[in-house]
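Minutes, project check-in
Item: structure for the 171-residue chain
Input as provided by the requester:
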Amino acid sequence: MLFAMRFAMRSISSLAIPSLLLCALAGVLALAPAASGADAQDGVADPYALSAAGDPDKGRLLFNRCRACHTLSADAPPRPTGPHLDRIFGRAVAADASFTRYSAALKQADFSWTEQRLDEWLANPRSFLPGNKMNFAGIRDAQDRKDLIAYLRQATAAADAASQSPRKGAP
């Protein structure tokens, strides 16, 4: 009987270790897509979290401060003081060819605009990217930034949808 118990214990432990390793590997693989950036931008689990927490109607009112320098449409006459914000999310920094007055700091920056990066920029452009020429102190209130980002997400998505919709008379 003692022999049978020892044999059973060895069999259980020889199965338990591989089973534990298999479970650990499965756990790592299950978490890998979230950590790989497949659904994340800049290490943020939900790249739409800021706009989801904002009020686009309030953001539209906040955007009135931005209109002096920026337009939402690439088709609008260019402003000499700032680039258009059409398709801003996912766009590389300093990528608007119609705007020729980017600072050296913006031209040398190597990233694309995400909600998180835009939030940091809007909070304090000078500290986010030293050397930029944007004459704007920033928006200190986090909720105001979320509202503005929600509006930009909505307004630029509407512009994207309009530009991709079939035109009358098109085959």
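Outcome recorded: Residues 15-41, 163-171 have pLDDT under 50 and may be disordered.
No further action items on this chain.
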